[in-house]
């Protein structure tokens, strides 16, 4: 997944993600190995790239429970304004996997 990050929020975003945040909620939603990378690309903008493994058996139900959790809603209320969706997207843009090697 990819999304932009507003320059003025970089430090606060890093600080928020250095803490516990909603890590326990992600585990309850069967999300493992959630990793966010941050890079400044040649266009001068900051971008976040993220990936995770889903280990459950009902993705839609797990994501619905996560989306409805009040703590997750509050977390997104903090983080979403710091981000800049790419054109054509209203949040994290899901990228197509074209190569994977175990």
Would you give an account of this structure?
With 102 residues, this protein is of the alpha+beta class. 34% of the residues lie in helices and 25% in strands. It has helices at residues 10-18, 23-28, 59-68, 70-79, and strands at 2-5, 31-40, 46-54, 83-84. A 4-stranded antiparallel sheet has the order 2-3-1-4.
Return residue spans where pLDDT drops below 50 for at least 5 consecutive residues: none
Largest sheet: 4 strands, antiparallel
The share of residues in helices is 25-40%
Radius of gyration: 14 Å
State the end-to-end distance: 19 Å
User: Beta-sheet strand percentage?
Assistant: 15-25%
Strand pairing plus helix content: what structural class?
alpha+beta
Summed over residues and divided by their number, the pLDDT gives a mean of 97
Shape: globular
What's the number of extended β-strand segments?
4
Give the SSE order as H and E letters. Answer: EHHEEHHE
Strand order in the sheet with the most strands: 2-3-1-4
Question: What kind of assembly state do the chains in view correspond to?
Answer: single chain
Enumerate how many helices there are, as a single number: 4
Question: How are the SSEs ordered, and which strands pair?
Answer:
Layout: E1 2-5, H1 10-18, H2 23-28, E2 31-40, E3 46-54, H3 59-68, H4 70-79, E4 83-84
Antiparallel strand pairs: 1-3, 1-4, 2-3
In short:
The protein is an alpha+beta fold and 102 residues long. It has helices at 10-18, 23-28, 59-68, 70-79; strands at residues 2-5, 31-40, 46-54, 83-84.
């Amino acid at each position: 997944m990819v999304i932009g990050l507003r320059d003025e929020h970089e430090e606060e975003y890093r600080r928020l993600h250095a803490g516990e945040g909603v890590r326990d909620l992600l585990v309850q939603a069967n999300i493992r190995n959630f990793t966010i990378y941050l890079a400044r690309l040649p266009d001068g903008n900051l971008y976040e790239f993220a990936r995770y493994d889903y280990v459950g058996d009902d993705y839609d139900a797990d994501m619905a429970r996560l989306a409805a959790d009040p703590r997750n809603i509050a977390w997104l209320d903090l983080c979403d304004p710091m981000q800049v969706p790419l054109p054509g997207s209203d949040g994290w843009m899901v990228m197509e996997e074209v190569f994977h090697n175990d």
